[in-house]
Amino acid sequence: MKKTVSLILILVIALALVSCGESTESADSTTTGVKAPAEETIDIDLTKLTSVLVYSEVYNMLVTPENYIGKTVKMSGQFTTAYGEDTGLYYPAVIIKDATACCSQGMEFVLKDNPKYPSGYPEMSEEITVVGTFETYDENGYLYCHLVDAEIVK
Asked: With contact defined as beta carbons under 8 Å apart, do 81 and 92 qualify?
């Protein structure tokens, strides 16, 4: 069985260690969003699920990514990034907390036209909604999951 390791799982663990007990109130959004795509073009809308179901579905995406490849996903959560020392790249992600707001999972995303971070990205910890196509990629022998051609929507 091929071992699947996700950068997002590392992000999630790190964020969970520092975010437990923090306020879950969202900051005022100053990011310029785009109009949300039509509902019929979204295969998986996590914004309509309870926090327990969202957490479970994101976990499933990370564990069985082959079931989600090519699907259009909409999700909301806190914006964060991780910096890859070995690649010299920033990896933007949406972090979703579980029902107790203690633990979290996340999904990396690549904005459409792939602007260089930080230009075009929201402030850290800002509440955002992202729509993109679920894909996987291999980097340094590890399989990662992310949303590509993503848009931050209102």
From this structure: yes
- Return the closest-CA partner of residue 62 out of 14, 10, 27: 10
How many structural domains comprise the chain? Answer: 1
User: Domain range spanning residue 14?
Assistant: 7-20+34-153
Please give the Cα distance from 58 to 56 (Å, whole number): 6
| Chain mean position to CA 58 | 9
Which tens digit of pLDDT belongs to each residue from 109-130? 999 999 999 988 999 999 999 9
> Amino acid identity, residue 1?
M
* Domain assignment present for 93: yes
> Structure pTM?
0.73
- H or E segment at 68? none
